[in-house]
């Protein structure tokens, strides 16, 4: 979870004494734009390392937007671990070929011992013993785990701060000078 707060909101309100309500609206807009930019950066950074669709990431990252009353936004990545089929798996449909999978970019697909595809559940399964049953579904990391990597997190936070600064300046100029 990443939280975007404005540290100097009181000082900005004093700067706009005649229009404190408008100042809070402007700050709230800037925070929301920063949160949206941070989510986009998270998706980009995750996809640099992992083989996953942007839509899977976007579904797992939620934003609690800022209001003029709260002046903070939260970006949360949550959800279960993702089925291995959401990553790079061959073959895509059940057949007799050896199942191979790759989660991260920069490597080759690794064979999955006793692995097979179940199209009804759209996932890869493997036998846990020598007999036919029991079987176990195979999963990769969750979006929250991918987003929690230090390099990804650092990039997301930097993008949020950069966007917040730019948008605050833009929105303040818009409030002061019109346009």
Task: Give structural notes.
This protein is α+β, with helices and mostly antiparallel strands. It folds into 2 domains: about 1-80 and about 145-175, no CATH class; about 85-135, no CATH class. The chain is about 45% helix and about 20% strand. The chain has 5 helices and 9 strands; from the N terminus they run E-H-H-H-E-E-E-E-E-E-E-E-H-H. The chain has helices at about 10-15, 20-50, 55-60, 145, 150-175, and strands at about 1-5, 60-65, 70-75, 90, 100, 110, 115-120, 125, 135. A 3-stranded antiparallel sheet has the order 1-3-2. Strands 4-5-6 form a 3-stranded antiparallel sheet, with no helix packed on it. A 3-stranded antiparallel sheet has the order 7-8-9, with no helix packed on it. Strand 5 (about 100) and strand 6 (about 110) form a beta hairpin. The longest helix has 30 residues, at about 20-50. It is elongated and about 75 Å long. The two termini are about 35 Å apart.
């Amino acid at each position: 979870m990443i939280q975007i707060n404005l540290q100097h909101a009181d000082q900005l309100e004093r700067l706009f004494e005649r229009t404190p309500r408008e100042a809070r609206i402007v700050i709230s807009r800037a925070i929301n734009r920063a949160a949206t930019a941070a989510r986009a950066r998270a998706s980009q950074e995750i996809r640099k390392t992992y083989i996953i669709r942007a839509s899977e990431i976007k579904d797992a990252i939620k934003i609690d937007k800022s209001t003029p009353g709260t002046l903070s936004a939260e970006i949360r990545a949550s959800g279960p671990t993702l089925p291995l089929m959401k990553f790079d798996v061959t073959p895509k449909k059940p057949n007799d070929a050896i199942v191979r999978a790759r989660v991260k970019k920069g490597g080759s697909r690794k064979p999955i011992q006793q692995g097979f595809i179940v199209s009804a559940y759209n996932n890869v399964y493997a036998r846990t013993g020598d007999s036919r049953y029991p079987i176990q579904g195979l999963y990769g990391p969750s979006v929250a785990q991918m987003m929690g990597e230090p390099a990804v997190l650092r990039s997301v936070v930097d993008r949020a701060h950069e966007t917040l600064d730019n948008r605050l300046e833009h929105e303040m100029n818009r409030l002061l000078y019109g346009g």
